Amino acid sequence: MTAGNTITGIVGQIILSGATISGTGNKAMEATIQIARAHAEFLPVGTSVKEIISGMKSASGTVRAAWVTGGTLMRTLMDGDTTFEMSIQLTGAVALFASGCKADSYSVRIAPSTEVLTEELAFTGTDWY
């Protein structure tokens, strides 16, 4: 359903380490991927005009989902120090991928006023596309 420039309803997927964790049966709540590129100043020899140069890419973010009984994906990624890929994909093949990711922290909490047990994984990656 579209209202002006706002897209509502289920229009995409959250994919963590190859597993689709969003949608009706999976109860994913939200995910964020932040992308960045390092920059530095460079002063070429023989000039007083600085240039800005671009460096390495980086990615970071979080993924939060209802903790489904028996679900171990996020905890396994944290415990195993496993490298994984995280993506947020809009229906129609538009996507943002973070690769070379490692888990930074893992937490479990009760969502306010709902008594829904949730888990959250924060990650840092080495590339995005």
Model description:
The protein is mainly β and about 130 residues long. It has a single domain, classed as Roll (Pnp Oxidase, Chain A), CATH 2.30.110. The protein has one helix at about 75-80; strands at about 1-5, 5, 10-15, 20, 30-40, 50-65, 85-90, 95-110, 115-125, 125-129. Strands 3, 4, 5, 6, 7, 8, 9 and 10 form an 8-stranded antiparallel beta sheet that branches. A two-stranded antiparallel ribbon has the order 1-2. Strand 5 and strand 6 (about 50-65) form a beta hairpin. The model has no long low-confidence stretch (mean pLDDT about 85).
At a glance:
This protein has 129 residues and is mainly beta.
Point out poorly predicted stretches.
Answer: none
CATH topology: Pnp Oxidase, Chain A
Helix content: under 10%
> What Rg, in angstroms, do the CA atoms define?
19 Å
Mean pLDDT: 84
Number of domains: 1
Structural class given helices, strands, pairing? mainly beta
Number of helices: 1
Q: Choose one word for the global shape.
A: elongated
Cα end-to-end separation? 27 Å
Query: What about the largest sheet?
Result: 8 strands, antiparallel
Strand content: over 45%
CATH architecture: Roll
The helix-strand sequence is: EEEEEEHEEEE
Question: How many beta-strand segments?
Answer: 10
CATH hierarchy, class: Mainly Beta
What is the topology?
Blueprint: E1 2-3, E2 6-7, E3 12-16, E4 19-20, E5 28-42, E6 51-66, H1 73-79, E7 84-90, E8 94-110, E9 117-125, E10 127-128
Antiparallel strand pairs: 1-2, 3-4, 3-7, 5-6, 6-9, 7-8, 8-9, 8-10
